[in-house]
Design a protein that fits this description.
alpha/beta, Rossmann fold, 2 domains, ten-stranded mixed β-sheet, 16 helices, about 30% helix, about 15% strand, disordered C terminus, glycoprotein, signal, Neuroligin/BSAL, CarbesteraseB, Carboxylesterase_B_CS
Length: about 475
């Protein structure tokens, strides 16, 4: 396995042109995009895109296809179900409009004064730009967007373009693939770039786990990503892409999703993608996995007037019959440094095997036995579950089959700190409060020792005076990496 570690990795700006977030750049100097003259015949129907000419004279035109369905709408009886292949359509679909984004609860930024006490000014301005493009929501949201060099349609079949599939991040609970425009990347690098939407939050990751149903699909968002990859495998050649040369790339929570797919036995080895790029995130990050999803599923069930005591099939049936608003309005409070709805162990897409079941298996992580309570029972926290997921023999074997590139920026997780934190730094007392919260919500035992170890590890001992600016950088590193990265 080839592992490349990139310290400074240019991530989202590469994908962003003046069309970012669907914003039109067409004015008197930039004529409207021209509908393509060719019809592309996919396995599900005919489709026609449009031509975009980048402003730079060094970039060739790109053919864009927006809102291409890759699965049936996950509505009605298909809510909380694995994605189903899309039905064929008749006629020629004109792919010039983005699809709705998946239902999501967006960050509340209406009170600017209050918001700036939590996040930086730059982050606030970014949210003001992106959120308006996430308001058109629908459960019918399983669509993808394709950006291909315009000459892709006339290239010889043996000279197809490599394919990059981008899995968006930001959160497991909001965002979309629509805002990330692949025009410049497709033209400059000679790639077919694909962005995807997948189910988020409650609809994407609800997991009412029970011992009676140890293997029951729950990571619907990850299954959507797999379904999109199957569609791309089947159809990307007609857009000029090479289905045998696909790179899966994710950012933030999207990177963690990619990491889970890299090691999942539900993904056919080397068939759907062939290498991966993880930008500013990883499945090894403490926030990447929800350790106790049943707790949050019970909150949703109670709020929607479905008994949490129902068996899993009956509970999901009840929740399918409830209005969407009854699910999204549930009062779920999540501890810092974690998510209520995100990837979790379902025994199908994400599995631990028997590493957290048999106390005699002798499993160790980093030379230390897996954490146990004073009674000798294994501790089921996120860290132990993550370790078990990625250290299974099958997961290790799966991971070695792919080339992997890892990328981080100089200072991660600026979005988690206020403007004052970023500008003036963090005092030692505030750092201790943040780290205590992180340790308390991440680990189960030996909390004082872990806290002391983290502070020791992320203290610049060559500087006798701990200036708030230096403390700020070390705190950001802990927030992003955890003590496990």
């Amino acid at each position: 396995m080839l592992i490349l570690t990139i310290v400074y990795f240019i991530s989202l700006p590469v994908l962003t042109t003046r069309l970012v977030m669907g914003e039109s750049t067409m004015d008197e100097k930039h004529p409207q995009p021209m509908i393509s003259s060719r019809v592309v015949r996919t396995k599900y129907g005919d489709i026609r895109g449009f031509i975009v000419t980048p402003e730079s004279r060094f970039l060739e035109p790109v053919e864009v296809f927006r809102g291409v369905p890759y699965a049936s709408p996950p509505i009605g009886t298909l809510r909380f179900m694995p994605p189903v292949s899309g039905a064929q359509w008749s006629g020629v679909k004109i792919a010039e409009e983005f699809s709705p984004v998946c239902p999501q609860v967006l960050p509340d930024i209406r009170n600017e004064t209050a918001v700036l006490k939590r996040i930086s000014k730059g982050r606030f301005e970014y949210l003001k730009r992106i959120l308006p493009f996430l308001t058109n929501q629908s459960e019918d949201c399983l669509y993808l967007n394709i950006y291909a060099p315009a000459q892709a349609g006339v290239r010889d079949a043996v000279a197809r373009y490599p394919v990059v599939v981008f899995v968006h991040g930001e959160s497991y609970e909001w965002s979309s693939g629509n805002p990330y425009d692949g025009t410049v990347l497709a033209s400059h690098a000679g790639l077919v770039v694909v962005t995807i939407n997948y189910r988020l939050g409650i609809l994407g990751f609800l997991n009412p786990r029970s011992d009676e149903f140890p293997r029951s699909p729950a990571n619907y968002g990850l299954m959507d990503q797999i379904a999109a990859l199957h569609w791309i495998k089947e159809n990307v050649a007609v857009f000029g892409g090479d289905p045998t040369n696909v790179t899966l790339m994710g950012h933030g929570t999207g990177a963690a999703c990619v990491h889970f797919l890299l090691t999942s036995l539900a993904v056919p080895e080397g068939l759907l993608f062939h290498r991966a790029i993880l930008m500013s995130g990883s499945g090894l990050s403490p926030w990447s996995l929800v350790a106790d999803p049943n707790k949050y599923a019970a909150i949703i069930a109670t709020h929607a007037n479905c008994s949490p005591e129902l068996k899993q099939p009956e509970l999901l049936k009840c929740l399918r019959e409830r209005p969407l608003e009854a699910l999204l309005s549930a009062p779920v409070q999540v501890p810092d440094f974690s998510y209520a709805f995100g990837p979790s162990v379902d025994g199908v897409i994400i599995d631990t095997g028997d590493l957290l079941i048999s106390p005699e298996n002798g499993y160790e992580w980093g030379g230390q036995p897996i954490a146990r309570a004073p009674t000798g029972k294994q501790v089921q926290n996120a860290i132990n579950i993550i370790n078990a997921v990625f250290m299974r023999k099958s997961a290790v074997a799966q991971l070695t089959k792919y080339d992997l590139m890892l990328g981080v920026t100089k200072a991660e997780a600026y979005f988690a700190f206020s403007g004052d934190d970023v500008q003036y730094g963090i005092e030692a007392d505030r750092r201790s409060k943040i780290l205590k919260s992180f340790v308390r919500n991440t680990y189960s035992y030996h909390l004082s020792e872990i806290l002391a170890t983290i502070i020791n590890e992320y203290t610049d001992w060559e500087r006798p005076v701990q200036h708030p600016i230096n403390i700020r950088y070390t705190t950001i590193r802990v927030y992003f990496r955890g003590f496990n990265f």
